[in-house]
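Lecture 7 notes: from sequence to structure.

We start with a single chain of 269 residues. Read the sequence below before looking at the structure.
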Amino acid sequence: MESLTSSPGSASPASAIPAAEPGRDRQPHRLHGALFQPIGDEGRAELVERRLVDAINRGHLRAGERLPSESELARSFGVAPVTVREALLAVRGRGLIVTRRGRHGGSFVADDADPLAFARDQLRTTSRLTLRDMGAHYAAITAAAVRLAARRADPSEARHVRERLERLEVLDAEQQRRLLDDVQVELVSLSQSARLTREQMKLQAEFSPYLRLVGTDAAGLRRQADSLNAVLDAVEDGEPDEAGRRTERMVADVIDTLIDIQITSPASP
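Now the structure, written as tokens:
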């Protein structure tokens, strides 16, 4: 995958991302960098299982998508292949992946994996206080990064990110969701801070399921794209305070919408 920032000499925060499945026309999206980071000394099958389950439930690995091979996963997570094999067996037992034999075989996300249902369950069990706290954390990191981007980025870099957003209309809904996540991370990467970009990738992986709930249709996805375009305008114009304000407003709108959804959604039996 290409570097998240086009500035020479800057470190890429996504250095160990499994290659895309041969024959598919899409590349791994930016959040794969956060999902497949090494898990370090705690290289236990349960942790690998949890990372894979989260990736599927949050929609970062979509239904029908082929997982990287056991050896690729082992290298990415920094664990032994036998640990990955044990984790895959557990995820298969949950019904989230299936195994196919033959030349084009491997482990695939189950066709009935439903990240939107997972997002609804998550929202139902999340308190309003926690939602607002999560929004405050997300807004603080993202706004700080886009302020830096407005000071440091060349206008041509912001225009390059905007060109990606212009492809939104030709993509299906799932590809649009991924593109919006990627654009947010790329916008933050214009800060030329590898640390902030890595933190944004982790936050985006956590926040993305909730963004699905406020972008379940074309109009919702378009509103999110318009908000990102407004932030890009401020970054391109070199207006750090305005870029930060627009980011904070965008996040506040998302949190308010999520709370509205909580209020109007029927309680689970």
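Residues 1-26 have pLDDT under 50 and may be disordered. Keep this in mind for problem set 3.
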